[in-house]
Amino acid sequence: MAIFGTVETLGKQACSKKYGKVIEFLQTEDLAKHFAEVTPDKKKTVEIDGKNLFAIFQEYDTKFYTDAKLEGHRAYADVQYIYEGSEIIGYCDLADVQGEIDYNAEKDIFFCKSKNLSQVVLSAGQGAVLEPSDLHAPCMRVGGQPAHVKKIVFKVKL
b/e for 49-64, b at 16 or more Cβ within 10 A? Predict the structure, then answer.
């Protein structure tokens, strides 16, 4: 089940053994320093525990609901944290998938469709813990206008 909220909420509700290093990184790291090296065309990856835990710093403009892709992962859980801006993230359970799943093991990703997509608004200082059963469609606009977002996606090896 997906968990949404502030860093404090995520730290209290998420399994501290699995996600503790993510919460510690968010609370102690100079995030602005990392984002100074990021542009919409250039992401930055920071290894925290090798391939077991790493952070992808990114920035982009949010997109229309119709352009969002519902995605899932098998080898990694996502912890998505909004540093600046706001976006809607759609989510649903893996059991709600319609049609075939074409999994790319090298990139640990698949895209799929579902009619049962719930939506949550995430703003600066908030995040989401998304296990493999939590499919998600991130980066959607809040309202009609695009917003500029700076986000960190932590990949946690399961």
Answer: eeeebbbbbbbbebbe
